[in-house]
Structure formats: structure tokens, C-alpha cells
Specification:
Layout: E1 8-10, E2 13-26, H1 65-77, E3 85-86, E4 89-92, E5 102-105, E6 115-120, E7 130-142, E8 146-148, E9 157-159, E10 166-172, H2 179-196, E11 208-217, E12 227-232, H3 235-254, E13 262-267, E14 272-278, E15 288-289, E16 296-297, H4 300-308, H5 314-323, H6 329-336, H7 339-356, H8 360-382, H9 393-404, H10 410-423, H11 427-434, H12 442-455, H13 457-464, H14 471-481, H15 488-499
Parallel strand pairs: 12-13
Antiparallel strand pairs: 1-2, 2-10, 2-11, 3-16, 4-5, 4-15, 6-7, 7-10, 8-9, 11-12, 13-14
Keywords: ATP-binding, Ligase, Nucleotide-binding, Protein biosynthesis
Protein name: Aspartyl/glutamyl-tRNA(Asn/Gln) amidotransferase subunit B
Catalytic activity: L-glutamyl-tRNA(Gln) + L-glutamine + ATP + H2O = L-glutaminyl-tRNA(Gln) + L-glutamate + ADP + phosphate + H(+); L-aspartyl-tRNA(Asn) + L-glutamine + ATP + H2O = L-asparaginyl-tRNA(Asn) + L-glutamate + ADP + phosphate + 2 H(+)
């Protein structure tokens, strides 16, 4: 295994950056961790708040079993230890959006123990650029509310809709050594969560965010003092925050200063971090077991049910695409990087195989190349996405089957795709309406080839004298003369026969 070598070149020599991420992922559930309140994104402020969420006196938490199930499934997906005995603790601190005055979390006995995630640092070299990032733990906790400072000139408003929402805090080991590694790790973790269905991974909506721990040291020396940059909400911003914070720490150290263990905030507008507050340690929060909640005990049957419910995960799917479908490592990686893309591709594969009366493995390369090169390229030009596309897997399969059967050529297929995106019509209807059926009549093609060769006698002579690259010229001229409708295979066969 190889990893990228990332160094900061300071005035006094090289520095190494050490990175760990604490990712807060909102658990997919219709209700909160300890109450029945809804969790829909974008609801009116304070419209999804129960008496428990608002910390009214005498209210007791009731654990949401689905949240535990999803956290266990996530742990199993990263090959982590599942702790059958775990406990909830109170993390005590005061903040205006935390009505209880404490957060129910897990410190000493988390639900999920050590696991790992394998990342790929170079998509074009997936086998030679892998690195394993250790996971220290996943614990389950409740979210706080939200302060809104832009609603009034002198006051801050409090929205408790997020208060009590279930979070998985996924804590990595400090195994990352570059912004690129951290970006790859966060992207891979989000992919796994989306495959499992335990979190939607929508960082722009706050359902997944990262606290970024950064320190620097001379290569080979002990770990330096770290800072924590809170609530960074995109992969790109995480990478920017690391780059800026590492460089800032190097500048401080080289100027003779010391790094202060503190919490910082990232400013997306400037790409920089700024101090927020001094960093607390665990004892500052006065953790103690929550007296309102019994320890959580799981049995073997529950864990096995969680394991059985897991889908095919991205690494296994990528390996299957390579070994069973014969796809390139790059294409397999692209198609499995997002669960919706993988599902779209598999539906496309099924439709193409059915329409063309072939086995999926026979049409896999054609389908993969078309989806990645043609459809993705066309959607990118339109500023659209696969989810927004009017071309469904069924319509894509219909188009590819027409190519596979020889009804239309590859070049005509590109024209048809453009019209499909414009109109939303199916491929067969467009081909029939536009008169785009491929010409396979050897007599008609031969007559056109004869005309091309007669009009280019000089080039025919050059070809016969050894300038074989001119063969492509004759193919192109023939296809052009037949408006792209000639069967390329027939064209090639006739030209080879006539040119000798």
C-alpha cells in the first residue's frame, strides 16, 4: 500500500501534518433519539419539538430502537466491534440552544468500538494507492438546537427543531497525513453511510458535518498539540481547513510560539480558520452515567439481524464489477462511488440485457462506457444530474439495445441521446420519427464506397504504397456520405476488400 507524501515546507525545514476527523452523522429515522418528534429538514422553527426536547420538568427519555439499529448496521459496515453492553452518559455544559443543560452521549462505553475504512488516493490506480484509516469508535448522542443570529438586530433566536435529533459520532484515529487523504476518507465514509441507509450524507443540510483535528510535527517526532475546527460541512471545506490550519501552526511554531489547544471555526469565504474558544477536556464536562437510562444490552439475534439487513457495500460491489462484469478498475470505482449511481447502472444493465437478449456481462462494458462518457458528459454540459435526468435507466437500455442490435450506429446514438434529453422521448420513437435507422444494405454501401475511392484515387495509391493510416479517412468519408447511417462494420469489411 502506498500513501501520498504531503509536507509543509517551512522556513526551517519540512513539517508533517497529522489529521483526525470526528464526523457527526444524523441517523436516518422518522423521530428523535429520545422522543417521538419529527426530524424533517426545513420545517418551520420550533415546529418539531416535544416536551422532552424542550426539557420540561419531569420528562423522561425513551430510547428510539431504530436509531440503535442504524448505528449497529453502520458499525458492521466498517468491520467494527459491536459492544453488546453500552451506556449513556450526561455531558454537562450550558448553552442557549441546549435546554437540558447537558447532552446525552456516550463516553466511557460506546455502542461501537474499533473499525476501519479503506480509502483510494488515486482513482486511476485503485490497487496501488490504498490506505486504511482506523476508526476508534462510534457513539450515539443527541444533537443540540440552533441559534439564529440574523433574525433580529439585537437578539438571537433559538430553534429547537434539531434538539434531540439522533447523531452517530464517528471518531477516526489520527491516521491521515494530507488534505487529500482526509477528503478521500470523508467521501468514502459518506458513501458507506448512504449505501447502508443510516444517514443521507447531505452535508449542505447539516445532516453530516466534521470536526477537524489538526496538528503538525517534524517527520518522525511525537504528536504536536492539536486544534479542533468545528462543524465543517463539505469535503472541499474540510480540505481547505486542514491546509490553512496546518500552515498557520507551522508559522506559529517557526516564529517561536506555541500551539494552543483550542476550538476554531472555518470561514468558507476566506478559506481560513479563527479561534472560537479554548478546548475543553472530558473532565470539564463532568461526565457521569445518565440516571434516567438503563445500560443498553444487545443480544446476538439483534446483531445478526442487523448484519443480514446490510446491502452489498461499495468495496464488494466494485470488486464484483471488475471480476464478474469485466469492468476496468476506474469505471468500477466511478459507478460505485455513489449508491444512486450504482443503482441506476444496475437498472440500466438489466434493461439493456433484456432488450438486447444478452447476458449482463456481455453488455456491461458498453453500458458502463455509455453512462460515464456519454450520459454523464451530456448532463454535465446541461448542468444537470442523474437524478434530474429525463433519461431513465429504461430509456437508456432501449437506446443501447438499438446500438447492440445494429439498428443505429454509435454516432447516431449520440444524436438520439441529445434529442432524448431535449424531449424526454424514448430512443425507438426518435429513431423512427427522424429516420435514423442504420443502413446495412451492402449494395448501397458498396456503391457509395466506389464513389469515394474513385474521387480519391491519389489517396488510394498512397494507401497501397503503405500509408495505411488513410484507411480511417476512407471510413470517415463513407460515413459522412451516408449521413452517419451506414453500419460501420459493413463499411470496414467492404473497404478492406476493395483496398486489398
Amino acid at each position: 500500500m502506498t500513501a501520498s507524501t504531503y509536507r509543509i515546507h517551512g522556513a526551517t525545514g519540512e513539517w508533517e501534518v497529522v489529521i483526525g476527523l470526528e464526523v457527526h452523522a444524523q441517523v436516518t429515522s422518522q423521530s428523535k433519539l429520545f422522543s417521538g418528534s419529527a426530524t424533517a429538514f426545513g420545517a418551520e422553527p420550533n415546529s418539531q419539538v416535544s416536551l422532552i426536547d424542550a426539557a420540561m420538568p419531569g420528562m423522561l427519555p425513551v430510547l428510539n430502537g431504530e436509531c440503535i439499529r442504524q448505528a449497529v448496521r453502520t458499525g458492521l459496515a466498517i468491520n467494527a466491534q459491536i459492544n453488546k453492553w453500552s451506556r449513556f452518559d450526561r455531558k454537562n455544559y450550558f448553552y442557549a440552544d441546549l435546554p437540558q443543560g447537558y447532552q446525552i452521549s456516550q463516553l466511557y462505553h460506546p455502542l461501537v468500538g474499533e473499525g476501519e475504512i479503506e480509502i483510494i488516493l488515486d482513482d486511476k490506480d485503485p490497487e496501488g494507492s490504498t490506505k486504511t484509516i482506523g476508526i476508534e469508535r462510534i457513539h450515539v448522542e443527541q444533537d443540540a438546537g440552533k441559534l439564529m443570529h440574523d433574525q433580529h438586530p439585537t437578539m438571537s433566536y433559538v430553534d429547537l427543531n434539531r434538539s434531540g435529533v439522533a447523531l452517530m459520532e464517528i471518531v477516526s484515529r489520527p491516521d491521515m497525513r494530507s488534505p487529500a487523504e482526509a477528503g478521500a476518507y470523508l467521501s468514502k465514509l459518506r458513501t458507506i453511510l448512504r449505501y447502508v441507509g443510516s444517514c443521507d450524507g447531505n452535508m449542505d443540510q447539516g445532516s453530516m458535518r466534521a470536526d477537524v483535528n489538526v496538528s503538525v510535527r517534524r517527520p518522525g517526532e511525537p504528536l504536536g498539540t492539536r486544534t479542533e475546527t468545528k462543524n465543517v460541512n463539505s469535503v472541499r471545506f474540510v480540505m481547505q481547513a486542514i491546509e490553512h490550519e496546518a500552515s498557520r501552526q507551522v508559522d506559529v511554531l517557526e516564529a517561536g510560539g506555541k500551539i494552543v489547544q483550542e476550538t476554531r471555526l472555518f470561514d468558507p469565504g476566506t478559506g481560513s480558520t479563527r479561534s472560537m474558544r479554548s478546548k475543553e477536556d472530558a473532565h470539564d464536562y463532568r461526565y457521569f452515567p445518565d440516571p434516567d437510562l438503563l445500560p443498553l444490552v444487545l443480544d446476538d439475534a439483534f446483531v445478526e439481524e442487523c448484519r443480514a439487513s446490510l446491502p452489498e457495500l461499495p468495496d464488494a460491489k466494485r470488486h464484483r464489477y471488475e471480476t464478474e462484469l469485466g469492468l476496468s478498475a476506474y469505471n468500477a470505482g466511478v459507478l460505485t462511488a455513489d449508491v444512486e449511481t450504482a443503482r441506476w447502472f444496475e437498472r440500466l444493465l438489466g434493461e439493456t440485457a433484456k432488450a438486447a437478449a444478452k447476458q449482463p456481462a456481455e453488455v456491461a462494458k458498453q453500458a458502463a462506457n455509455w453512462l460515464i462518457s456519454e450520459l454523464f458528459g451530456a448532463l454535465n454540459k446541461l448542468g444537470s444530474s442523474l437524478e434530474q435526468s429525463s433519461v431513465t435507466p429504461e430509456k437508456g437500455g432501449e437506446l443501447l439495445a438499438l446500438v447492440s442490435k445494429g439498428t443505429i450506429s454509435g454516432s447516431i446514438a449520440k444524436q438520439v441521446l441529445e434529442k432524448m434529453l431535449e424531449t424526454g422521448d424514448g430512443a425507438a420513437a426518435i429513431v423512427e420519427r427522424e429516420g435514423l435507422v442504420q443502413e446495412s444494405d451492402t449494395g448501397a454501401i458498396e456503391a457509395k464506397v466506389d464513389e469515394i475511392l474513385a474521387a480519391n484515387a491519389d489517396k488510394v495509391a498512397q494507401y497501397k504504397d503503405g500509408k495505411v493510416a488513410l484507411f480511417g479517412f476512407f471510413v470517415g468519408q463513407t460515413m459522412k456520405a451516408m449521413q452517419g447511417k451506414a453500419n460501420p462494420q459493413v463499411v470496414n469489411e467492404i473497404l478492406k476488400a476493395k483496398l486489398g
